Amino acid sequence: MEKNGSIGIDIGSTTFKAVVLNRKKEILFSKVVPTGIKIADQIDNLFQEISFYTKEGYNIISTGYGKEMVREATNRYTEITCHLKGIYEEFRTASTIVDIGGQDSKVIKCGPDGELIDFVMNDKCSAGTGRFLENMAGRFGIHISEIGGIANRISKAQNISSTCTVFAESEIISLLSQGVNTDEILRGLHLALVRRIKSMIKSIGFNPPLIMSGGVSLNPAIRELLGKELGTETLVSKNPQLTAAYGAALLGL
Ligand code: ADP
User: Fold this and answer.
1) Are 7 and 247 in contact (CB under 8 A)?
2) Which atom of ligand 1 lies nearest, measured to the CA of 131?
3) Is the pTM of this model over 0.85?
4) What residue spans define the domains of the chain?
5) pLDDT tens readout for residues 104-126
6) C-beta separation of 160 from 128 below 8 A
């Protein structure tokens, strides 16, 4: 039986996202909330919230690290597949997609027809992920939504040479004890993350344009510095945290 639409659910390590699409690919409902401790309850609550659609016969597609927990899923796909689908639907071009989430980062190379050419993923080390910035924001007593704007107030960046979050923290303490300007340290931290992403991009080859998705693309300093490092403009998805949920929902139509 033909379905009326599709529900995409992306359960990430940091945020829980859902998108409901009708058959015309219009977004009827969306939500982004922090991933809770009791993911099963969070899924039940979501289904209560969108019970109208589930009654009407919608496919349910899950993705993200919690995708297996969605018992009701009619299909499950990897985040790579869902990000690619969501971004290609929005931009309709070959590209290099950078998705930086809470605990992993991915670079996906997309061909002219939206096909996957190659990808590389870091989920082993927190440096190069949103968690790195969250830790650093916490250390400086700054909200995560503010840290990028502060790093962008200044053009000079301190060199943070450690590629590990724990050692980077020691470096920061040492710089602070020398009375170094905190904005310069913050910019240096952003640059350290961006350089890790740049080396991931280089490992599979940069195919312009550069398109960002994921929560860290909300950070203006990351967007600007990544573009600068690659000598290009950084494009960002309209709803960067919803990209994989949107792509999942598209795969269910
Ligand atoms: P997940 O990996 O769970 O899919 P997201 O893609 O939602 O995670 O990314 C979460 C990360 O996004 C956080 O670790 C944080 O660094 C970043 N982030 C979230 N909201 C903002 C914001 N308003 N401004 C800047 N960065 C943000």
Assistant:
1) no
2) 14
3) yes
4) 5-81+243-251
5) 999 999 999 999 999 999 988 88
6) no
